[in-house]
Specification:
The relative contact order is 0.22. The protein has helices spanning 3-23, 85-94, 97-100, 114-122; strands at 30-36, 44-50, 62-66, 78-83, 106-110. The protein is an alpha+beta fold. A five-stranded mixed sheet has the order 3-4-2-1-5, with helices on both faces.
Length: 125
Amino acid sequence: MTLEDRIQALKNSAVRSLVEAHRVRADEPLLLAVRFEIDDPLGVGLFEVVDGFPGDDDDGLLSTDYEPSARLRLAGPLRLVLGSPGQVLGAVARNDDAIRALRQPSVVFEAGSDGGRRVREALGL
């Protein structure tokens, strides 16, 4: 296995673990998870739409970066972008930076909810 293969395996495993941990949350159900920045050789971008995420629909999306750690086994940083369906739809309408950053997106989870479908359609996925 090459170094690139091992890094890709780490990235895939981290995304699966994060999505599963967020999927089972009852207080803020995960509606849609989209992996982006697929071409980054070390880091991972994960965009999540969460029902009940705090804030108003006109609030911006929350974007935060995490460095690799013992709990987050990656070769590079994780960029996590979070928002409610209303916040994401507002970000799409405003063409926010976080929306433009969704290059080469790949849906990794969809709950099948109306909110998730609306957001997926708005994102063109």
